[in-house]
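Q: Here's a chain of 372 amino acids. Please give me its 3D structure as C-alpha cells.
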Amino acid sequence: MPLASAYPSSVDTNQRQPASPRLAGQAVTPMAFVQAIAWAYSRRGLNPAAALAAAQIPPDRISDPEARISALQMERISGHAMRELDDEALGWFDRRLPWGSYGMLARASLGAPTLGLALKRWCRHHGLLADEIELQLTQADGVAQIALADPRVPLPTREFCHVSVLRNIHGLACWYTDSRIPLLEARFSFAAPPHRDSYAVLFPAPVRFSAAQTAIRFDARYLDLPLRRDEAAMNQLLKNALPLMVQSYRRDRLLLERVRQLLRGRPQDAHNAEGLAALLHVSPRTLHRQLHELGSSLQALKDAVRRERAIELLLRTQKPNKQLAEAIGFTSEKSFIRAFRGWTGQTPAEYRQQQRELAAGGTRLDASRSIS
C-alpha cells in the first residue's frame, strides 16, 4: 500500500489551506522527500535513476531545495522505489518492510469493533515490524493523540518517516470509519523545514515544529466509531493501492455518525429530511448539502441502516418478512424484499438459510477438530 500517494497535490500559499481541485496537478510536494528516497537507494548501494525516470524527475533537480514535484510524480517514484528496494518504508528503518507490510498491518486491525482498538493494534503491530520508533495512542480531556517517539540519531529520512507514518495511520483511520477525521493539531520534533508551506495540505490543522514529540491530535469521540469496512473493501483497497486521502471539513461535526445514530435510535422522528434536520438543529437544505460534501446522502445512510437492521433481525429472530418490513420501516413486504435483494443479491429467506448453513458447517468443523 503506497503511503506517499497521500502527499500534497496543491496548496494555496496565501490562505495556507488546500487549494481547489482545478489546481490538483500543481507541483508542490517538496523535493526533500525525493532526496530521502535517493538516500535510501544510496544506503543500499543502488542507483535511483530508474525510479526518477519513472516519475519523470530530472536527476539534476534533486539537489534544488526550491524544486517541487506533483502528487502523481511522488506516487510514481514511491511505488517504483518500494518495489525496487522491496521496502515500503523507503529506508526509514534498518529493517526493510517488504511489499505488503503496511497492507498486512491494515488487515490485522480490520476486525476491531471500534476505531480506538484498531489504532491501538496498528501501533502495537507496527512496533513488531520496526522497533526503531514507538507509536502510542492516548486520550485525555476529550482529545486523542497518536504520538511517534524516535530516539535515534536523526537520519536524512527522519522527516519523511514521521510525515508518512502519521499520514498513513490518519488516512487509514478515516478509511476504516468512512469519516473525515479532522485534526486539532500536528506537532513535529524537528525544526520547521524550508518547505513548511506544504504542511498546510499534509496536515490541515495548526502545525508546531521543534516540539517535544511528533504527534497528531483529534477529537477522542472518533475512537468510539465502529469500523465500516469489510474484507471485500480491504481487498479492493490493497489491490488498487488507493491513496488514503483525507478531505477537510468542519471539525465540530460528527455528522455521518450522528445521522446513523438517529436513524437507528429514533426512526419515527428521523424518517424524512425535515424530521432529521430538526433533530440536528439545521435546515433540510443544509443537511442535504453537508451530506453531499461528505460524499454521502440521506437515502444512502437510510439504506445502510436498514440493511444492518434487516440482517440483524434475520439472524437473531424468526420474524417473517412482513414483520421484518414493518420493523425496518418499509411500507410493504414486497418493497422490503426488493430492497434486500438489491443490497445482498438474495431474498431475505435465501440469506437467512445461507447463514444458517454456514453456521452449522462451522459448528461441525469445530466439533471434528475437538475430536481429532
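Q: Can you summarize the key feature?
A: The chain is about 50% helix and 10% strand.
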